[in-house]
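Honest question from a wet-lab person: if I give you the sequences of every part of a complex, can you actually get the arrangement of the whole thing, not just the pieces? Trying it with mine:
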Amino acid sequence: MAELSFTKEVQKLKIGAGETFHGEGILAVTKALLQSGVSYVGGYQGAPISHLMDVLSDAQGILDDLGVHFETSANEAAAAAMLAASVNYPLRGAVTWKSTVGTNVASDALASVASSGVMGGALIIVGEDYGEGSSIMQERSHPFAMKSQIWLLDPRPNLTSITQMVEKGFELSEASNTPVMLELRIRACHVSGSFKAKDNVRPTFTLAQAMENPVRDYGRVVLPPSNFVHEVEKIESRWPAAVSFIKKHKLNEFLGGHGGNLGIIVQGGLYNTLMRAMELAGLADSFGHTDIPIYCLNVTYPMIPDEVRGFCADKRAVLMIEEGQPEYIEQAMNTILRQAELDTRVVGKEVLPRAGEYTGQVLLDGLRQFFETYAPEQITTNTSLALTPKDQKQLTQSVPLRPVGFCTGCPERPVFTAMKLVQRELGDFHVSCDIGCHLFSILPPFNIGNTTMGYGLGWSGASAFNTKADKRTISIMGDGGFWHNGLTSGVGNAVFNKNDNILVIIDNGYSAATGGQDLLSSRADNAARVTNQPIEKAVRGLGVTWVRAVNTYDLGKMKATLKEALTTDEKGPKIILAQSECMLNKERREKPLRQAAIKNGKRVVRTRFGVDADTCTGDHACIRLSGCPSLTIVDNPDPLREDPVTHVNNDCVGCGVCGEIAHAAILCPSFYSAQLIENPTRLDRWRAGFRGAVIGFLQDRADKKRAKYSFGIDL
Amino acid sequence: MKSVRPIKIAITAMGGQGGGVLAGWIVAMAEDNGYFAQSTSVPGVAQRTGATIYYVELFPKDIAKKAKQIPILALTPVPGDVDIVIASEMMEAGRALLRGFVSTNTTLIASDHRVYAISEKEPLGDGRQDAAHIRKLASQTAAQFISFDMEQAAKSAQSVISSVLFGALASTGKLLFARKDFEDTIRASGKAVQANLRGFALGFDHANAKVPNPSVRQKTNSAPAPLLVPLLQFLQDEFPLATHEMLTHGLKRCVDFQDTRYGTLYLDRMAKIHQLDQTCNGARKYWRLTCDMARYLALAMTFEDTIRVADLKTRASRFERFRQNAGASEGQIVIVSEFMHPRIEEFCDMLPAPFGRFILGKPGLKTALGVFFQKGRRVQTTSLRGFLLLNTLAALKPARRISLRYSLETQRIETWLNTIASVAPVNYMLACEITGLQRLIKGYGDTHARGLQNYEKIMTVYKSFETMPLAHKQLKTLKDAALLDENGLALEKALSKLQKRRKT
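Yes, you can. This is the full assembly:
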């Protein structure tokens, strides 16, 4: 079960022609897929397209009714390979993933399907994780499209444009026998809005028909001599077909006015940001009315030379707004203009930054610079900053960074606490990290980890260190990464190459960082998938003999197991399965049940933790070993002490890690667990009454004795 | 080109604070009341406790209809062009200011509470950033600045902060919707409706300043117990007024720790310090040495041994406090377990000094006995067994004076006081700083040992710069460094820097 349930939103997928769809960008894409008569959909979750996968998972019933096959692929390569179904048959299919990381993984299959060419429309929806909030290397998906010859769509970020482009994308794919990539930026995936819906369409040709009537065409297989033929085909027939389709259907838009000798060329996805910047520069109004001609590239690959020439012919200079680098579009523009012997200046990266997201402010600055050079009379002057440089400086120093971290009660935290404690005893180790929530170990307060090479590549990232040394290396991998490819690239690789190091697999039952989707090893039952395939069985099947499963909340055992793995004389790969359910998902599942039980009069014990302010001395060693968001600090109630004391706030879910830390690291006696009993039994009440009477008597006596030393003032 | 512009709202929050819910409410309300609405957010790992921005733009439909156009709405806020900024925490308001979202046209709604970042929580001392200048800048910059502790308000309404923020937003009147429209939106969402409406109402009224600030608790004042009268009299007679408050706190702590005799010892030690202060013309420094020592001597004399911990853990007032912290309702059964891990060292600390020294001096014996102290213990203080165990330990209080720990602490305190006595006439400010070194000694077990080690390191090195000008600043630098990280890297660096300076 994923982190978010879309059972309500899924109903929106059923609406028909004439109705208005309200919702998030990525849901609109899902609806557009159904309107396009898609036969199959696959993909791998990851922000910003996780919701697309989650919605489809929750929409299983609707998909079945329409005859659409949906698959949660093992990884992006598996998803891309799924497009093979469109090579021989008139089947429309779509796959999706987070880019560029997913596209990297998928590129082998993508190159193959692009070489073979497709008969049915093949759409690749990539969520471009670039700019603010991104958690990956900052790169572009653009060159993948260029190198394999896949057409790249970058629609304006409103739901009408996006959904239209999904539908046109399939047509373009079929018209040019080429897969098409639809690029959506993070905020566009999560932009809310509306569009006029159409009826869903059942595919006219079904998957079953294809299976029952297979068609084979040697010319479509990537093997000599067909592969050479494909290359020629790409240039001689598919490219021209695409160019003429794009022109004919006006996929690129000529917006704005017709005046002057200046123009702007913009990637479709940046159009709204550009218009806001133009509005602020006094060049446009809220509806996008402007005198400046704008050429909006909803298709960023291939370029349409006729359109470029036509747009630039009467212009002195054009501003090219292209996010990221290298600036492929700008380069292509210059080539086209040079070949046409046009003197129009293309001004791009000389006024806009080479790196970083193109936000409103960035574009505003770029626009100003461009117009100050070419038409200074057209723009309004700069507004002044609200803060003085001194205030700015003071704020910079005082506003703390908020690095992402493990959630309250996260079962992964104690794994790294244990590692930190082991490192105190045995010295530091080389730690190779993976992709997933566990990567937060690299940040404070743990500061554990050297590199991260990609999803599932934690162990292979340390494979060079497979030599005799006095210390072993530790690698981390999540269950998500394990099933994505770590099983072979990490574990299989280590067994085959006689690795003597350690792998810790964080087995929390979900692909947690991407939104809590189910995996092969998930403990939950899933009607549509097979789960409950233990990782331990898989790694033993590959030949690993040293395998230990440890409950992550048992800090003492985790520490002992890590120490054993690091110091044992036994040779060969060592795997520690750190097991406990993702707290975010567990709470989501159990909290309503707990509340219902309390309401129904059932005996329920709620646990939460606390710190005694009068024994806490404010050293915060516990915080440095935990980092739990619910473990915070408050003013010291003691007038003599200056440093703030530790405090457990109301978010505590009672996981018990702070108590375990106090034990394992021999910290301090301030931690306590408080169990609140809801709907106590008679025995509970009797016992509590008896204890209360005795304890109360003793406490009364002590209080009376203390009263003899009363200062009489409450200081 | 002048035209109607969209209303731009930025919500700056931390992941998990319900910023998405708030944005969703605004969008739903606007769409139901004749507006185009668009919201965006950045999903993914940023939402796992990181700082993030939810951005909303609204545009009136009738204007668009008249123009027969659809407005183009942006996906990110532009500095200087945001109408309403909603910050779910004070530092996030600071971040909004820093990013330029708050301009002279902006309505800023910010909850005046702090959620500390890990960099503020980690240090061994006090790493908290001060939000006062953010409050000042916010009220100077924003056209309208609404701020109160919305976290507290949410708690009192048993709701979440997003509902209080929504109420505060309604009260600004910046969105042209009626209070009912806001409330209907909450109702239509169908989730935790009653709680959210309570939070909303509190937010609305608070922002209109209809809710009085909680009054300061009255101090109770009754006559001191007869046993204490002579001590308090002595305090009043012998010490200058400026030192009375700190001394009374210190005296109270010492008496509470042991008995009135111990309180007398405290005052005697303080009297000597005050005498010293007088000979050093301390009055000119507002009796800084006496005041500082009143604080730190009391802390040093009330060390956290097992007896002290057991005493504090078994008090009735403490039972009341944990019930309150856990949110237990009247009469609800609460079972409390302590996480204790006494080591052989703590056990020996409690023994009569010669025995304790004997065991700790024999490594073989220490290891053999150590077997019993390897595991942490969970002591259930609310059970009879657990309570009686701790109560018995607490009852050892009268025997504390013969314990090893008492003798060790007394020895250290005497050395420390002697140091002060010798330094103060030479360098008054340095003596004050040495007094403050007590701040390094805190915690239990390894933490305590580490603090003590740092303390001793500085206590041996200070002599080398005792006579230098600004020696007190040098000492403060070392102390601050010792509080910076637990591995002592900062202190090592500061010490080696000092050594280099001395050589040159």
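Two things worth pointing out. The mean pLDDT of chain A is 94. Chain A has 25 helices and 24 strands.
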